[in-house]
Amino acid sequence: MIDSRWKAILKQAGVRDVRVHDARHTAATLLIEQGVNIRVVQQVLGHTRVTTTERYTADARCGGTTRLRSLGEAIAVQLGLQL
User: Fold this and answer.
1) Dist CA 56 CA 13 (whole Å)
2) In this predicted model, what pLDDT tens digit does every residue of 11-70 receive, in sequence order?
3) Alpha helices of the chain — where are they, by DSSP H?
4) How many whole angstroms separate alpha carbon 33 and alpha carbon 35?
């Protein structure tokens, strides 16, 4: 069920097929880029050690922010959240 909902979200956002794990990396990176404290991101992701969070976000710093925002908006719609 999660997989089919996830694929629907990706299709709606016009984003290529990616794993939920990849989306976690992206979400963490976007939070960091928006100035959210690393400790808050650590809690959101459920990491015990902040060093894990630091590794998680370090390799995802790249372009494509518009598509990533589209994905985030599609996820919010699927979850019934207002932006």
Assistant:
1) 23
2) 888 888 888 888 888 888 888 877 788 899 899 999 999 998 888 666 544 545 566 677
3) 2-13, 20-33, 38-45, 50-58, 65-78
4) 5
Beta carbons of 38 and 83 less than 8 angstroms apart: no
CA distance 47 to 79: 23
- Closest alpha carbon to 28 in 3, 2, 5, 50: 50
Q: Residue 62: which H helix or E strand, with range?
A: none
CA distance 26 to 29: 5
CA pair distance 13, 35, nearest whole angstrom: 24
Which two structure tokens, joined as six digits, stand for 40? 């808050």
